[in-house]
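pasting for ref
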Amino acid sequence: MSIVIERWNVHPGSTWMRGVRPEKPVEFNEALGAWCAYGYQEVQRILADHETFSARTADLAAVQVDEKFMAGDISQMDPPEQTMYRKLIGRAFSPRIITNLEPQIHKVTGELLDAVDEKGSFELVADLAYPLPVRIIADLLGVDDLDLFKGAAFDIVENMAGIDFVAGGENAEEQIHSAEQRLQPLLDYMLEQVLARRRSPREDLLTYLTQVEEDGNRLTDNEIVNVANVLLITGHITSTMMLGNTMACLDAEPDKLARVREDRSLVPGAIEEALRLLPPAAVLSRGTRRDVEIGGVTIPEGQMILPWVAAANRDPLQFERPDEFLPDRSPNDHVVFGHGVHYCLGTRLARLEGRIAVNALLDRYPDFRSDPDRPTEFFPSPDMVGVRTMPVLLDR
């Protein structure tokens, strides 16, 4: 059985999620003013070949971003610069550090679900999927203004679509720069925290970022602010969407929900399959560093190309029954977390949070199901796919 996307308010532009296949694996999109890659093999090749497809695409976008937002953003870097920054930041996400977070994730999950029981109502995102990852990453960083973080994160998803940077269009520049201004309080707050750590170091990730050194290189205050904001906003919003999307897929197919509840070894597979079907980041961006032939077309140097992860993850040449939610799908080589040198640093943490949270929900709510009178809603974004609200019935 295919996942019935129409039952949800997923952005109508996500045609591949409704079984509509692009005719070509790579083609030029006039509306976006960019090349689009839809095929799995083509998307994987683009993400793997940083020497041909550069991650630094800001200069090719229709709307230019203030340079202060770019410093320290490894998603806009290529090796060797990217390698140095990745080493600096990556130590904070080592397997040992992430494993040591497991007791805290269990504790926070339990506290959040206890609060649900106390108030007698349950909205999955507001009560669990959002606060769980944001509390974990905020604890890591050593910061605590959770309301400020939530406002900034949701504002970015709803009002700063990456497609707008690429395509521009009427009022796009004004809207994006307005969103940047709304982000400024978070930047100011984070800078205050960075300066405080330089004066009085603590046992937290912000202090680590102020002190870490690699081959004589250290991060500037502005770079630390941007790194922290990327970790805080993109890191937790991805985990929020991952958990919400997993439960939405399970809720849509009660027979598979029952299977996963009975056989918990299927929980990791259910999460991976939800990531494949409903990827939080539906599209990435790259720029060609030379003329290149891919997908039967030749793309000149200096062109923007958009690898559509959402389409690649449903490519029938790579995945059998690509529109079906199969918790036991194996292998499941989706490209949600990227591929190659830009593979997501936070992947291990996101998967751990998802596994703990899904198991906790299945333990505590044996009849978990959404409220049919208040349908699940998704973020209204063309390039981010995630549950924004899911009211849950509390029959137990």
